[in-house]
Design a protein that fits this description.
This protein has 98 residues and is of the alpha+beta class. It is 59% helix and 14% strand. It has six helices and three strands. A three-stranded antiparallel beta sheet has the order 1-3-2. Strand 2 and strand 3 form a beta hairpin. Helix 1 packs antiparallel against helix 5 and helix 4 crosses helix 5. The chain starts with a helix and ends with a helix. The mean pLDDT is 90.
Amino acid sequence: MDIDAIHKALANPVRRQILQWLKEPQQYFQEQEHPLHLGVCAGLIDRRLNLSQSTVSAHLTSLQKAGLISATKVGQWSFFSRNEDTIQAFLEHMQQGL
């Protein structure tokens, strides 16, 4: 677990918002045609944020490099979901470290 990468990823409010949405995808992405257990399609995250595709991609890459989300590729689509194990380990580290 790269603590510094996680802190850097969480320093951006857009990335924190993405994590919040992915925590409850059925509430925020019910229009997705593919099953939500695959994750949320990057295109739906793009639309919800109303930012350019390249900006959203950079945010998702940062979260992925920090280990906070994982991607599943299905055909041409990428689906993103939270990595709850890493998030829980980070929270435990913060409780013990501070």
